[in-house]
């Protein structure tokens, strides 16, 4: 299900009580890079179920120049490169070299005009003014402490009437994979003292990111909610990619032998929400898009 609404005001606050810690986030993604690279190809088709709505919301068209922020292992930059075609150009940046390793590897085998990838900070973009037609960011903006600088830089590099679109997560309770995995991991190794899941849901409240975009100068800011439900067989390890990618730092710090116990706990948790051997996986993401004036 997809719903949309315009964002008018700039008085909505984020749901988090504290900004993400820059050093902690850099460490998190440095530790997670290998897992994202390992799972990026097997998860590519599933990733496109989120990539394509984001590209649609951003209005990405053939021949355009696209900047993808926080590209990680190449999503949605690779999908954008297919859409813009040989007359267009896509550049993806990420703050952490370990995360971009997968994107660079995957681009080497790309058929068509390859996207370029580079290390870059979205709060200080290394590009000239009005250089891009579109800017995308899939699940990256939540981890940036200085949102105002990111928005200002995004506007600066966009052409007049260009468009940016950001994808963020809805509430943890609406995302079955995350909520059940977090509970299972915590059962075995205890609560996360760093609360590393919190930044993922920084903009869980409707309008929270859109109000910041409006305040920064974006026009015609809109928001869409994506709320699909997948139904997967309980006897398949459908959760393993998310466990490896999202919980890599916590798993790395666990005691030897904990992994098997964690996987047993994961199976138990998903058994609790399954019906007749099928597990419904609810997902809630939001796409917030706005135009440069």
From TrEMBL:
Listed InterPro entries: Methyltransf_25, SAM-dependent_MTases_sf
Q: Which CDD domains match?
A: AdoMet_MTases (cd02440)
Q: Name one GO molecular function term.
A: methyltransferase activity
**GO annotations under biological process?**
methylation
Q: Which SUPFAM superfamilies is this protein grouped with?
A: S-adenosyl-L-methionine-dependent methyltransferases (SSF53335)
Q: Which UniProt keywords apply?
A: Methyltransferase, Transferase
Which part of the chain is the Methyltransferase domain?
Answer: 66-162
The record's PANTHER family line, in alphabetical order, gives: 2-METHOXY-6-POLYPRENYL-1,4-BENZOQUINOL METHYLASE, MITOCHONDRIAL (PTHR43591:SF24), METHYLTRANSFERASE (PTHR43591)
Q: Please state what the protein is called.
A: Methyltransferase
Q: What species is this protein from? A: Skermanella aerolata
